[in-house]
Design brief:
The complex is a heterodimer.
Chain A lengths: L4 E6 L5 H7 L4 H8 L1 E4 L8 H5 L6 E7 L2 E3 H13 E7 L1 H5 L11 H11 L14 E4 L4 E4 L3 E6 L9 E3 L6 H12 L68 H4 L17 H12 L5 H9 L4 H5 L11 E2 L9
Chain B lengths: L8 E6 L3 H10 L8 E6 L7 H9 L4 E6 L10 H18 L7 E5 L5 H18 L4 E2 L11 H10 L4
Helix pairs in contact in B: 1-4
The structure holds iron/sulfur cluster (2 copies) and FE2/S2 (inorganic) cluster.
The site of one iron/sulfur cluster has 15 residues of chain A, from loops.
Amino acid sequence: MSKPKVGFYWCASCGGCEEAVVDLAEDVLKVVEAVEIVFWPVALDFKRSDVEAMKDGELAACFVNGAIRTSEQEEMAELLRQKSQLLIAFGSCSHLGGVPGLANLWDRQAIFDYVYKEAPSVTNPDGVVPQERLKLGSNGYALTLPAFRDTVRALDQVVEVDYYLPGCPPPVKLIVNAVMAILDNKLPPKGTVLAPDKALCEECPRKPTKPDKLALKELKRPHQIQIDSEKCLLAQGLLCLGPATRSGCEAPCVSANMPCTGCLGPTSRVKDYGAKALSAIASLIDSEDEKEIANLMEQIVDPIGTFYRYSLPASLLHRRVPHKGGAPA
Amino acid sequence: MSEQWEPRVVAFFCTWCTYTAADLAGISRMAYAPNARIVRVMCSGRIDPQFVLKALADGADGVLIGGCHPGDCHYQSGNYKALRRYTLLKRVLTEMGIEPERVRLEWISASEGDRVQKVMNEMAEQIRRLGPLRLERPPKPHRAAVKEREAVAVSSQGGAR
Ligand code: SF4
Ligand code: SF4
Ligand code: FES
């Protein structure tokens, strides 16, 4: 029997998810032994035309990382959907929109104005911005670039997704388990996020020091205090989002004295990660005084970046209809 | 703005105070703006910020939250919890480009029918001034609906790890 064919693709992403595949280390051998990788632009020389030449469903599984920002990414998502039996959203950006999704606070115009004209490091006296089509000379030849959309979307906001591998990037253990589940045909119902459905605190090494009832009088940022390397970070006043975040990563950030920023996203019962996270934090504030509460909340410098760092496109509000202008503050 | 547009407000009222006050306003035949659909909850502390976002995402132009006065919550401190969540939620809304005035929290006791009338009228006016909340409709997720229980069962068997 021939080995199942597998593909990897990247859209709007940083490359960290590709690193995660490399991080499989010797486990990658198990994977390579069991499957045939037929498409992986970052590592192997295959072209879109190779995918187009495949039969529908020829790929047993395709792992797509990155959010969807451009017309080309949309097309690739659609193409890979058609050619794959299983399409797996790989990593936070593909799962929930990820860090690139924070750009939904602005629209295309504002981003172009800032990036190509207004940013202090830019010299662009002619105000040149990328064009989707550019006629060259008189021979009628035209260069084209993919369209840059107003809105960043998660993969399942573009095509149907079968499974999700959460994380920024997904933890190695979850990747291996997912690949093995695919090979052994032991997958859970479609639509499942392939990680345990309980909060990160449950597997956090600091859990024993987390008080049953937390009452925070102050919120702190990691550089402001000498962090106790054993005590629960929330109990130290740091904004650790462990209570609102899905487990499965074994808390590497927390183990390195950094509060969890929520990259694995919410558990299955939560519809909006940010709302859940802000609710969890607000509930722990120990104050009944309106002014004091307002002051404490002001200490959260960047609420969207804090609570929606990985999930703005997948949030319930999605975004306000883009209004023109207004460069990033 | 079309001439037909009427502000749509979802009001989450705690059953012990604000909802009772709204009842009283009704019994006392106090007329007020008909723009709010009232959702009765046990306590303002039960209002998950996700309820507010869901209301806005599904077409409300504003959300009103009503609870017992400080010190009067039937469950001791639910209203303080509501206040803390509301304060933080307003910061998030502002950063998302949504006018924070679209969401309002009011303490209204069971006897304050007149206050329900006043707040409902003010809220309708406030939202009318702000205009419709235009959200870009999130593309519907193309995701096989997982039954919650199924997903939970799977992960507790360890099957999905
Ligand atoms: S809040 Fe953070 S540090 Fe505390 S137990 Fe949960 S994950 Fe660990
Ligand atoms: S601790 Fe939090 S931020 Fe770090 S990997 Fe785990 S889920 Fe992601
Ligand atoms: S019962 Fe009214 S606010 Fe808690």
